[in-house]
Amino acid sequence: MVHEMPAGTDDLVADLVEALGTDRVVAGGGARHLYARDSSIIEGGHSGPVCFPGSTDQVVECIRVAVAHGRAFVPRGAGTGLSGGAVPCNYPVVIATTRMNQIHEIDTERRIAWVGPGVVNLDLTRHLAGTGLHFAPDPSSQQACTIGGNMANNSGGPHCLAYGVTSAHVAAIEVVLPDASTVVLGEEVGDAVGYDLRGAFVGGEGTLGIATRIAVRLTPDPPAVKTLLLDFESIVDAAETVTGIIAAGIVPAALEIMDHKVIHAVEKFVSAGYPLEAGAVLIVELDGLPGGVAREVEIVEQVGAENRVGTVRVAADEVERELIWKGRKNAFGAIAHIKPGYYLHDTVVPRTRLAEVVAKVNAAVERHDLIVMNVFHAGDGNLHPLLVFDPREPGTLERVHAAGEEIVRISIEAGGVLSGEHGIGLEKRGFMPLLFSPNDLAAQQALRDAFDPHGTANPLKVLPTGASCGDVMSLPGIPEGVWV
Amino acid sequence: MEAFRAEVGSSGPVCIRGGGTRWSLGGDVGAEVRVVHAPSGIDSHDPAEMTVTVWAGTTLTALAETLAEKRQEVGLDGPPGSTVGGSLAVGWNSIRRRRTGTARDALLQAECVGSDGQIFKAGGPTVKNASGYELCRLLVGSLGTLALTGRVILRTRPMPESSLWLRGSMTPTEVERSCYRPSSILWDGDHSHVCLEGYGVDVEQEASDLVEHGMTEVDGPPNLPPDRHRWSGELPKGAVLDVAIGVVHCNGSGAVPEVDPTVKVIAGRLKANFDPKGRLNPGRDPYMVSE
Questions:
Q1: Chain segment B138-180, per-residue pLDDT in tens
Q2: How many helices and strands (H and E) does chain B possess?
């Protein structure tokens, strides 16, 4: 349902059109409906006019006009976020960066690329084909998500175990701040002097300003890669193998676990060759120089054997390797076929407690009469329990909500945190006090206020406040952190 | 943390001292300012988590010894006597940063005492975390001007099986092209110095390729002068450039880099928000350093 926009909106739209041109501003009900949500299952957002700037100057104009009209603004990339970070509250100006999708400059010698925030993650790596370099962060949505969005959420992906999450791959950022001034944070080479403002900005979920150009670091392609598929009777054995591999001093490029239910869903969907009788499979990817990779294959086989591995399949060639990954990368698509609704959760726990936490999470979700499946970045303890359900069944959403909160509590009790890579957004801001004390939150607020003293950028996200986000907050019985 | 909090208190100017190895960086605190020290000791090192929980007053040497028992290390750097807290406050990177990671990547969680004398926590205990703002990043390199750090959780990495330094007349660019992810490339104006690390078989193979290009095996890195400044295009005599990070190891600090006034505005607000009374390490300014 599209609501009427607040008074003064016509003037706001007129000023935006004057500043940007008619082809860069949409304010009709259809567009506002579309931009009222992201890939989370949070509904109830209310978008104001949606702008599609093509340059830094146009982003400056969007913010200048929004501020002049007393409106907040919400940055948006491809809208693939899973925590409601791009869901607009209270009719802000939505600034979509999708038309800022130019790769401005690639310096293969210095291994730096300057890109627009709207460049799609995989497009950059495809563009780099043949240079021997790639962009390392590889979230599962990499065919659609933008680098600006990756930066806002400090996104991860399977290969971030060895290579680090997005922050490790962003050298410098041109930012338009919430007062419409422009600044470059960070340095192309090395650390900037003073406070690490670049580091603070990455992961800011669009609450600190908008990135308009990003200098990303490019990673050399590894000379050798081996991908292994290990199957186990139980997820406990798979998790113990992960612990054993890390304890042996190996940091693989990726360590991914899928449970029995995911294996079945994936096989039905893409026939990746996963053994249907297995309780869990573990994908191990080893890369680097050939001698070390060969040694590590032996060590992984040995650690697997110590933990009751069934078979160890080492991909013989690129085709087999891609097939193993195809199953993993399509897991969420496969699961979407089981029930019409799904809620993908994201917490991190100490990797040595993975098996115990997964068992507790499964028991908790099943108590709420919901189906739970697990596919996760085991190497860094990043759990992704996936709840599948039919939202049309009465009472389901309440159970999903209750199970989600239990997952968070179980993870925190095990020494974990709220999110590994999806961010807080609207989804988890209500849970922040479970992890952080009022003093901790005040320190985070101090950081935010230094960038945005007037609360103009993506308000109501990340930190819990008493303020409401329109209908999202007014749903009966669901206080905060809503997936509906 | 409670004892440390009480020591810091909630009023009057206070500075924190680690090993004092880089005490004058960023300006001097006045002689009359009360000095506090963070506790020392290692709470726990869990190799399978690749993390260590350590008090900020612990020396880097003591930490390295403990981590080495399980063949791990951290990406912090400082002269002998440096402490964990001091090294985080300064934020210097190791010359082996390409392997060990940066100082800013090393800090996962910090328990701090703020300007108001209250304890707060930044970051979280896990190796991956997207829960809230990246406060830890702000603390590294802040010279203790935002909060005083008592205890931290750091990211550790496996030590390499084999480590080898070579020196020769190849340019840093040529070395970069010849090797896959060397741990360090330094340039002294005449020679490149490269550190190869990893499995013995790979290190030997890459080293033999470099030897064919005239590089020779040496015992370790060149002597590094004690001070650092940012690379500005000129290498003074006796100085050594860390190529990947644009840092010059030299005698005497160089000019303070120019900083965009907008950056200074944000920095000013940060200082005002975290330390409104200006009591933490007064006289220090993280923008008055040359690296």
A1: 999 999 999 999 999 999 999 999 999 999 999 999 999 999 9
A2: 9, 16
Closest CA to A423 of A159, A145, A174: A145
Q: Report the number of distinct structural domains present in chain A.
A: 3
Which amino acid, one-letter code, is at A382?
N
Would you call A351 and B93 a contact, using CB atoms and an 8 Å cutoff? Answer: no
* Mutation target vs B (from A417, A421, A422, A449; most B CBs, 10 A cutoff): A417
Per-residue pLDDT tens listing for chain B (291 residues): 999 999 999 999 999 999 999 999 999 998 899 999 999 999 999 999 999 999 999 999 999 999 999 999 999 999 999 999 999 999 999 999 999 999 999 999 999 999 999 999 999 999 999 999 999 999 999 999 999 999 999 999 999 999 999 999 999 999 999 999 999 999 999 999 999 999 999 999 999 999 999 999 999 999 999 999 988 888 988 999 999 888 999 998 778 889 999 999 999 999 999 999 999 999 999 999 877
B130: nearest CB among A244, A420, A449 = A420
Same domain for A329 and A371?
A: no
Query: Does any domain span residue A34?
Result: yes
A470 with A89: CB under 8 angstroms?
yes
Q: Do B180 and A191 touch (CB under 8 A)?
A: no
When CB atoms are compared, the residue of A183, A191, A453 closest to B141 is A191
The C-alpha of B219 sits at a distance from chain A's nearest C-alpha, in angstroms, of 23
Q: Are residues A85 and A207 in the same domain?
A: yes
User: Which residues of chain A does B206 touch, with a Cβ-Cβ cutoff of 8 Å?
Assistant: 289
Question: Given an 8 Å threshold on Cβ–Cβ distance, is B114 in contact with A439?
Answer: yes
Side-chain half-sphere of A412: how many Cα atoms within 13 Å? Answer: 15
Same domain, A72 and A149: yes
Q: Measuring CA to CA, which residue among A178, A183, A446, A198 is closest to residue B270?
A: A446
Among the partner-chain residues B105, B120, B206, the one whose CB lies closest to the CB of A440 is B120
**Structural domain of A30:** 1-221
- pLDDT single digits (tens) A256-284: 999 999 999 999 988 899 999 999 999 99
The residue behind tokens 């703020």 is B114
User: Do A88 and A133 fall into the same domain?
Assistant: yes
A481 located within any domain: no
CATH number at residue A310: 3.30.70.2190
Other beta carbons within 10 Å of A182: 19
Question: Any idea what the CATH number is for the domain that residue A357 is in?
Answer: 3.30.70.2740
Please give the backbone phi and psi of residue A391, each rounded to the nearest 5 degrees, phi first: -65, -15
How close does chain B come to A448, measured CA to CA in Å? 8
Residues A2 and A148 in one domain: yes
Does the distance separating the beta carbons of B287 and A415 come in below 8 Å?
A: no
Q: Compare all CA atoms of chain A with the CA of B289 and give the residue at the minimum distance.
A: A193
Task: Tell me the β-bridge partners of A342.
Answer: A388
Same domain, A76 and A187: yes
Test mutation, B8, B107, B134, chain A, max A CBs within 10 A: B134
If you measure CA to CA, which chain B residue comes closest to A152?
B130
- Give the 3-state DSSP-derived string for B79-142, with helices as H, strands as E and coil as C: CCCCEHHHHHHHCCCCCCHHHHCCHHHHEEEEEEECCCCCEEEEECCCCCCCCCCCHHHHHCCC
Q: Which of A330, A158, A343, A346 is nearest to A256 (CA)?
A: A158
Say if residue A38 is in the same domain as residue A51. yes
Residue of B nearest to A160 (CA): B128
Phi (first) and psi of residue B132, to 5 degrees: 85, -165
DSSP state of B42: E
Q: Which residue, of A275, A298, A333, is where some domain finishes?
A: A333
